[in-house]
Amino acid sequence: MRPAGSRCSRTSCALWTIRPTPRVKHMFLGHYAIALAAKKPAPAVALGTMILAAQLVDLLWPVLLVAGLEEVAIVPGITAVSPLDFTRYPYTHSLLAALGWGVLFGAVYFLFRRDGRGAWVAGAAVLSHWLLDLVVHRPDLPLYPDGAPRVVAVAATESAAYSRGAPWNPRRASHQRATSSRRGSP
Question: Taking the complete model, does pTM exceed 0.85, yes or no?
Answer without folding.
Answer: no
